[in-house]
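Milestone M4 deliverable, item 7.
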Amino acid sequence: MMNQIILGLSTGATYSLVAIGLVMMYKVSGVMNFAYANMGMFVTYLIWWLATGAGINLYVSIAIGIAFAAAMGVVVERYGLRPIRHLSHASMLIVTFGILMILEGLAMQIWGTDYKAFPELVTGVPYVFRGDFGIFVLRRQDILIFSILIAVSIALLIFTRYTKFGIAVRAVSEKEDIAGYMGINVGSVLAFSWGFGASMAAVVGIVAAPKVFVSPTMLTYYQIQGFTAAVLGGFETFTGAVFGGLILGVIEKLVGNYISEGFKATISLVIIIIVLIFFPKGLFGRNVRGRV
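Output delivered:
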C-alpha cells in the first residue's frame, strides 16, 4: 500500500504541474487552453532534437526549450487571443483548438510519428526504506518531480503575495476592468499568464518524456488528468491545483492496482461528475466568475 501511495503521489505531482499551468491561464484570461498538451509536446520535440540531433547539451537544450515555450505562449495570447477578446470566450476556445491541430500537424511533418526516447534527467538506483511500515521504494525521478512541484509552488506563493507584478496578476484575475482603471498593464499580465502556462507545459513534457517517450500524443492524457485535478481542487486556486493533482494520482493508482487498470482511465470522468454535483467550487475552491 505504501509503495502504491508513493507512486500515486509521484504521478499526481505531474498532474499538479499540469493543473498549475492550466489554472494560471484560466485565472487571468478566463480561457481554457485546449492546446496546452500540444504546446508541451512540441517543445519537448524541440528539446529532443536540440539534444540528440544538434548535439547541444541536454540542460542547455531544456533552457532553450522552456524559453521558447514562454515566447510561444506570449505570442499565442498577444496575436491569437487578444485581438478577439471583445467577441466571446467561445471564439478564443476555437483558436486554442486551431493551435492544437497546427502544433500536432507540424510535429508530425517535422519529426514523424515514431516514438523517440528522451534521455533521463536523473539516474541511479532508487532509495529503499525499511521499517515497521514495511518496505517502500522511492525513485530518483520521483524526487525530481516532487522537488519541481515544491519549488514551483513556493515560487508562486512568494510571487503572487510579495511582488508588485504578482499582486497585479491577482488583481487582473479578480477584476480585469477595475485593475485596468487602477493603472495595471492588463496586456502584460495576460501575456505573462500564457507565457508561464506554456512554460509549465514544457516542464511537464520534460519530466514525462522519459516515461511515455516523445510522440504527437504524449501529453494528451496528462492534460485530461490535469484538468480533472484542477476541477477536483477548485479551478481558480493554485492550492487546489496542487492538492487536486496529488489526490487524483493516489486515487488513480489505488483504483488501477486494487480494482482494475481498465477502470483507471474512466475514473477522471467519474470524479468530475461527482465534484461538479456535490462540490461545484472544488474541494479548495472559492466563488467563481461566469467564464467559459
